[in-house]
Design brief:
Order of helices and strands: EHEHEHHEHEHEHEHHEHHHHHHHH
CATH topology of the largest domain: Zinc Finger, Delta Prime, domain 3
Helix content: 55-70%
Structural class: alpha/beta
CATH class of the largest domain: Mainly Alpha
Distance between the termini: 52 Å
Strand order of the largest sheet: 1-6-2-5-4-3
Number of domains: 2
Number of strands: 8
CATH architecture of the largest domain: Up-down Bundle
Strand content: 5-15%
Amino acid sequence: MKITGTRAGRFINSPQADIIGVLLYGPDRGFAKERANQLAQKFCDNPGDAFAATVLTADDLTGDPAKLADEISALSMFGGSRLVRVRLDHERNGAAIAKIIKQFDAAPETAEAKVIFEAGDLSPRSAVRKAFEAAGRFAAIGCYAASTGDLANLARSSLETHGISIEKDALDLWVPLLGGDHALARSEIEKMALYKGYGKSAGAAVTTEDIRAVAAGGQSVSIDDIIMSAMNGQPAKCDTHFRRAVAGKISAVIILLSLQRHLGRLLEAGANMAAGESPEGAIKALRPPVFYNQQGPFLSQLRLWPTGMLERALRQSVEAEKQIKTAGAPVEAIMGRLLIALASYAQKRR
């Protein structure tokens, strides 16, 4: 069945009991993943348990598409619900997958597990999409870029959960910077909530000054500028960006936490490559996705930074965090030394 519009949100929150599987597809892969994670919680008691959930890729099914049918029909080893998650990065076996969907739709009693497919933008001619849309026990939901209104509502509601309000002028300035990707928007909103102390101060409100200080693209120098120049091996540029940020009252702690998040994403991409992904594929698999204008530098950093050195950099950042949290510590100096150390190492690797 095909589920669109407001029905999609209601379905994600409360899927029909007789549904066997759901296809989440569209250009907003971050939104598809977000919805897939929501559904996983509904479909499985413990979706993070390796014995309760099986993860397959399109490549896993290339040589053996019957593996999907085997997983859907397999009984739980320890009882309870089971979940099969499929990341469909290509449709080379689309016809075979569509046949399996039709098979279980005709005989739903043979399905022992729920199945969630995540895919990119599928055309109406896609064999997999057509199979899900035509079935009675399977559903297809498109995940498209958020509208301006959606992003404004998301920003307001997400900040409100932390007890933070946002001024109208600040919201008008921020929304165009959030782009149309839900996952990217959530990442930026989380960064802003962190900057505002998660609403620990009564009456906390996001202002236009906050947007210019923190939001990606909102100021002449951003946190991303600092981190990317450090990891790209540009110490002079990194130092200039960092000094401007300090002068602009951007917190060194926020920069450090953002650096740790970036190091974690590089490590995750490296793990994807170790599992057989191409560098480009490893980046595309990250959620939230890498901004388009940062994909080139991100690829360069994967070449500059071996896994061992990324792990070491992360340990150094944790040590810096401990030092920064010490009463009376020279916060900017500690952060500055860490950034220059990273930039100097990367410069030697170029």
